[in-house]
Design a protein that fits this description.
Blueprint (H helix, E strand, L loop, with lengths): L4 E6 L20 E2 L3 E2 L2 H9 L4 E5 L5 H7 L13 E5 L14 H6 L2 H5 L5 E6 L2 E3 L3 H10 L4 E7 L9 E5 L5 E6 L8 E10 H12 L8 H11 L4 E5 L4 E3 L3 H10 L27 E2 L4 E3 L2 E2 L4 E2 L2 E3 L2 E2 L4 E2 L4 E3 L2 E2 L4 E2 L4 E3 L1 E3 L4 E2 L4 E3 L7 E3 L3 H7 L1
Parallel strand pairs: 1-4, 1-6, 4-5, 8-12, 14-17, 15-18, 16-19, 17-20, 18-21, 19-22, 20-23, 21-24, 22-25, 23-26, 24-27, 25-28
Antiparallel strand pairs: 2-3, 6-11, 7-13, 8-11, 9-10
Helix pairs in contact: 6-7
Length: about 375
């Protein structure tokens, strides 16, 4: 079954900088935005972009992620001849091991890609928040007769030292990579979204497989080698909201972004919907004495206290006389009476006792309250 383009969604990252949020959970499976998980965004982009052949590459702590992704039904990817396939590390006659890098993940799943005999391969990360039409990116790739197209985003000049920067000519042809430069020549940052001509990529993956000093990584090895050898690499400028939620601070910031006026319709865009599973909880209940200001509240929630710029996932209960400000409350949480939370992230199914206060100041990292938070506090 030949397909023009196969999508490889890399969802195996451990996300160690997210600390407790990824202690037992793959980063793409972390809850986000009141009713989603992070991976819902690239998967929804695939559906909206008509990219129906998707391999999801998993590795770290995949149990919840695999259960969530399933056969791809929420994203209309439960199809007979293409659809979604979960690709975990495996062994064979020649042995096997973990994926050694982003490029190695494709090398080890070459048989999956080859089964569709594609002209192009779209490579995505499973841990970014954004809406993007990959069909338009592919159209530019073909129009430029490119070998590789890399999606780029303009970042503030003061932040260029945090990113891989691409230097381009006026027609967006890439002539240089700079990895986290001190004095950048441009502010075009790579988003980690690539389209490759498959036959060419296959050659370079084979060379990379046989290299003993390679990190087997697209950004560090494959792309610089392609550029060095004179192949045509182009940048695809992206306009819109994009966030790498790689730290606790950025994860919290991304949720607060959803409450800003210019992004309040980000999750309510009927022309570009974000899909996920529906747990079928009852409608939210805002009790008579509740006070809610600029917050997202999901189904199954019962609110008796005060909410200010906070996000409640499904089935959260907030008792009377409690105050929750600028906080993210994951599914199934129970917040007792006379509780005060500010700049706090509460993980799934945690019970916050009555008369407790947890506040992170503006110059501090948000507090993450995990299931074992209170046991650790007692023992210390």
């Amino acid at each position: 079954m030949k397909k023009e383009c196969v999508t490889m969604l890399l969802a195996g990252g451990a996300g160690t900088r997210l600390g407790k949020l990824t202690k037992n959970l793959a980063k793409p499976a972390v809850p986000f935005g009141g009713r989603y998980r992070i991976i819902d965004f690239p998967l929804s982009n695939c559906l909206n972009s008509r990219m129906f052949t998707v391999g999801v590459v998993t590795q770290y702590s995949p149990l919840v992620l695999n259960k969530h992704v399933g056969v791809g039904k929420p994203w209309d990817l439960d199809r007979m001849n293409d659809g979604l396939t979960v690709l975990s590390p495996f062994t064979g006659f020649n042995g096997g091991n973990w994926y050694l890098g982003t490029a190695d993940a494709l090398t080890k799943n070459q048989a999956f890609i080859e089964s569709y005999d594609p002209d192009y391969v779209l490579v995505l990360s499973g841990d970014h928040i954004y809406h993007m039409d990959y069909e338009k990116m592919l159209a530019q790739h073909k129009q430029n007769n490119a070998d590789v197209t890399i999606s780029v985003l303009e970042v503030p000049w003061k932040e260029t030292s945090r990113f891989g920067i691409l230097n381009t000519t006026d027609d967006m042809k890439i002539y240089e990579f700079e990895e986290k430069p001190t004095n950048a020549k441009s502010n075009l940052a790579s988003m980690g979204i690539y389209i490759f001509n498959w036959k060419l990529l296959k050659e370079y993956l084979e060379m990379d497989r046989n290299s003993t000093d390679s990190d087997h990584d697209f950004g560090k090895n494959i792309l610089p080698a392609l550029l060095h050898d004179g192949h045509k690499l182009y940048a695809y400028p992206f306009k819109g909201y994009w966030k790498d939620v790689g730290t606790v601070e950025s994860y919290w910031e991304a949720h607060m972004d959803l409450l800003e006026e210019d992004l309040e319709l980000f999750l309510h865009n009927n022309e570009w919907r974000t899909y996920s599973h529906d747990s079928n909880f009852a409608p939210q209940l805002i009790e008579a004495n509740a006070d809610v200001h600029q917050s997202l509240i999901n189904n199954g929630c019962i609110v008796g206290g005060k909410l200010d710029r906070s996000i409640l996932f499904e089935d959260v209960h907030v008792a009377e006389n409690s105050y929750v400000k600028q906080s993210i409350i994951h599914p199934g949480v129970r917040i007792g009476a006379h509780v005060h939370l500010e700049r706090v992230i509460v993980q799934e199914n945690v019970v916050i006792p009555d008369n407790t206060t947890y506040i992170a100041q503006a110059d501090e990292e948000p507090i993450v309250i995990s299931p074992d938070f209170f046991e650790q506090a007692t023992s210390s």
